[in-house]
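Notes from the 1:1 (GR / supervisor)

We went over the backlog. Supervisor wanted to see one worked example end to end before approving the batch request, so GR pasted a single chain during the call. The sequence is below; no edits were made to it. Supervisor asked that the structure be written out right there so they could see what the output format looks like.
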Amino acid sequence: MAEYFKTFLKTAEHLLKIESDEHAIKAISFVKHTEDSSEFQPEILENAKQQLQNYFEGNLQSFNLKLDPEGTDFQKRVWDLLYKIPYGKTCTYADMANKLGDPKVIRAAASANGKNPVAIVIPCHRVIGTNGSLTGYAGGLENKRFLLDLENRVANGVMSLF
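Structure output shown during the call:
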């Protein structure tokens, strides 16, 4: 069994837990409190921390990290689609289902989206309701709004999307 490592990134408004093995990011999540970080910090953790910091500063729009989230084959297909949503853009759950080749899988796609373990880098926050509304986000709707506004501001020079 592979050994897992963790670290935390505190920004002005957020606290993120970043988890990896020695080679790839396994999870990034919003948390309320820190724990002890791993004594050994693989290079991938430090890279992730720096890239996320740059993202929050508005200086990074595309991540260059090796990812290895754990999930079912279907979840990984959904996460691959999420990864392709451009910075500053959104799509709907119906769009996701159609891209998966079956409009009837909308609920399954939404469920897989909600189980995405790699917040921000696999940008599940870019998926919105068919009517344009903000819908559920594992990291909390306030964080989803913040991320979408940040990306919209940087990509399009717009002050607030929601």
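Supervisor's comment: The chain has a mean pLDDT of 92.
Batch request approved.
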